[in-house]
C-alpha cells in the first residue's frame, strides 16, 4: 500500500509541475568541476534523468573519458512529459515507457572528429552500450531502480523537491555518495538538518546565496524568461553532498569582540543573536544563533552545530527553551490584533521589543513586547 501511495504522490507532483525543473549544463559544469578526481573509476547513477533531456546525463556522457568513468547509468520516470522527444533513437519504443541507459564506452563512433551525443546514440544502436525498457515505472524507489542504486558508487541528479526527504533517506540507507540539488528550505527539514548536524551531509561549492535558473517544460506557463529557446525560472536551490570538499576546510576569519550590547541574548534561549556570519565574535565561547547561510561557511573543525531554532523542540534546538508565549497575542504594527496566539513563536528565536516591521507579540498583563527573528542555526566555537 505504501508503495502505491508513493507512486501516486510522484505522479501528482509531476502533474502539478512542482518538480519539473531541469538543471542547466553551465550550473552542472560549474559545480562538478570540483569533483573531477573523485569520479575516476566510478559508476555514476542519474536516477531522475531522461537521458536525452537531462543535462546531467549529457555532462557525464560527453566527459565520460575525461573523467575516467567506469559506467554511467540513467533511468527515466515513465510519466516524464519530455521523455523520448529528443532523438530518433527512441522511435522504436512504444509510448512513454520507463527505461535505463547504461554507458560503458564512449568513442568517436561516427568518425566525425568529435565525441558527442550522436556517438552515444550510435553506440546504443550498435550494441556497445544498452538501452533497456524497465518492467516498472522508473520511480527511484522501485525494485529495479534500487538494484541499479546498489551498483552505483555515486548518485548525481536533481531529484523531485517534494520527495526530497524520501530521496535522501534512500541514499543514506544504501550508504551512497551523492551530489544532488535541493530546495534551500530543505536544509531546515528535521531529517536533513539532523544529517548536517551529524556531518553526514553538507553544502556543495556553489554559494548558498546564489540561486539557480532552472529550465521548465515547454508547456509550462509560469516562467520568468526565455534563454536559448528554453523557458527558465529563478529557483531557491543549492547543492548538497557527502563527498569531502576543500571548502569545508576553510576557516571563517573572526575579528569582532563580544559585548552584551551588540550581541543580545534571545528572550527564550541562552544564546546570543548574530545577524551576519562575519560578525561572529572571536572571544565568545557560549551558544550562538546564526543565520542559515552559516552552513555555507561551516567548518566542522572550527564550529560545533548544536541545533536549529525554528519551531523547534528542545532536542532539535540543542539547547533548552526557557520561555513560551501562549499568553501573548500577535499584533500588527498599528497594534491591531491578528487573531493569532503568541504560541506560534514557541521554539523560534525570539528577541525582546517590537519588530521594526512585520508583526510582533504583546502581553497586555505584563506590557511586554517580543518578536521572532528568522530561523537560526545554534553553534559553538571549538
Using brief descriptors, characterize the structure shown:
alpha+beta; Rossmann fold; 382 residues; five-stranded antiparallel sheet
Work out the helicity level.
Answer: 10-25%
Report, as a whole number of angstroms, the end-to-end distance.
47 Å
Q: Kindly state the mean pLDDT as a whole number?
A: 87
Q: Can you count the beta strands?
A: 20
Assign the CATH topology of the largest domain.
Answer: Rossmann fold
| Strand arrangement in the largest pleated sheet | 4-3-2-1-5-6-11-7
Any guess at the CATH architecture of the largest domain? 3-Layer(aba) Sandwich
Beta-strand percent range: 15-25%
Please summarize the sheet with the most strands.
8 strands, mixed
How are helices and strands ordered from N to C? HHHEHHEEHEHEHEHEEEEEEEEHEEEEEE
Contiguous helical run count: 10
Q: What's the number of domains?
A: 2
Structural class by SSE content: alpha+beta
Describe this structure in words.
The protein is built from 10 helices and 20 strands. The longest helix is centred in the first third of the chain and has 14 residues, at 2-15. The protein has helices at residues 2-15, 25-32, 36-39, 55-62, 64-67, 117-125, 143-151, 164-173, 190-197, 314-317, and strands at residues 43-46, 71-76, 99-103, 130-133, 154-157, 177-183, 202-203, 212-215, 225-227, 230-235, 237-241, 272-273, 288-291, 303-309, 329-331, 337-341, 350-352, 360-363, 368-372, 376-381. 35% of the residues are buried. It folds into 2 domains: 2-248, Rossmann fold; 252-382, no CATH class.
Amino acid at each position: 500500500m505504501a508503495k502505491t501511495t508513493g507512486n501516486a504522490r510522484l505522479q501528482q507532483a509531476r502533474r502539478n509541475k512542482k518538480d519539473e525543473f531541469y538543471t542547466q549544463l553551465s550550473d552542472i559544469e560549474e559545480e562538478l568541476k570540483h569533483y573531477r578526481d573523485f569520479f575516476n573509476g566510478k559508476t555514476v547513477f542519474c536516477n531522475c534523468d531522461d537521458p536525452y533531456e537531462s543535462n546531467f546525463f549529457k555532462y557525464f556522457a560527453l566527459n565520460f573519458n575525461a573523467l575516467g568513468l567506469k559506467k554511467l547509468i540513467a533511468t527515466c520516470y515513465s510519466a516524464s512529459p519530455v521523455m523520448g522527444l529528443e532523438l530518433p533513437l527512441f522511435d522504436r519504443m512504444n509510448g512513454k515507457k520507463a527505461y535505463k541507459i547504461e554507458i560503458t564506452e564512449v568513442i568517436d563512433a561516427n568518425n566525425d572528429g568529435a565525441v558527442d551525443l550522436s556517438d552515444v546514440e550510435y553506440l546504443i544502436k550498435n550494441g556497445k552500450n544498452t538501452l533497456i525498457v524497465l518492467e516498472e515505472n522508473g520511480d527511484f524507489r522501485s525494485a529495479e531502480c534500487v538494484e541499479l542504486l546498489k551498483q552505483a558508487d555515486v548518485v548525481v541528479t536533481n531529484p523531485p523537491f517534494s520527495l526530497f526527504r524520501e530521496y535522501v533517506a534512500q541514499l543514506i540507507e544504501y550508504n551512497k555518495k551523492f551530489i544532488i540539488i535541493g530546495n534551500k528550505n530543505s536544509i531546515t527539514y528535521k531529517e536533513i538538518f539532523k544529517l548536517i548536524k551529524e556531518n553526514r551531509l553538507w553544502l556543495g561549492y556553489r554559494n548558498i546565496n546564489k540561486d539557480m535558473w532552472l529550465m521548465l517544460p515547454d508547456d509550462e506557463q509560469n516562467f520568468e524568461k526565455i534563454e536559448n529557446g528554453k523557458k527558465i525560472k529563478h529557483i531557491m536551490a543549492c547543492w548538497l553532498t557527502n563527498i569531502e570538499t576543500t571548502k569545508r576546510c576553510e576557516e571563517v576569519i573572526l575579528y569582532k569582540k563580544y559585548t552584551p550590547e551588540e550581541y543580545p541574548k534571545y528572550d527564550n534561549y541562552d544564546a546570543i543573536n548574530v545577524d551576519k556570519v562575519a560578525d561572529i565574535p572571536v572571544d565568545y565561547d557560549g551558544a550562538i544563533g546564526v543565520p542559515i547561510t552559516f552552513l555555507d561557511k561551516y567548518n566542522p573543525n572550527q564550529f560545533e552545530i548544536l541545533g536549529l531554532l525554528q519551531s523547534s523542540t528542545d532536542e532539535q534546538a540543542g539547547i533548552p527553551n526557557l520561555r513560551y508565549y501562549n499568553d501573548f497575542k500577535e499584533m500588527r504594527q498599528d497594534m491591531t490584533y491578528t487573531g493569532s496566539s503568541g504560541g506560534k513563536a514557541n521554539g523560534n528565536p525570539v528577541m525582546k521589543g517590537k519588530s521594526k516591521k512585520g508583526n510582533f507579540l504583546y502581553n497586555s498583563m505584563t506590557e511586554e513586547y517580543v518578536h521572532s527573528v528568522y530561523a537560526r542555526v545554534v553553534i559553538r566555537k571549538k
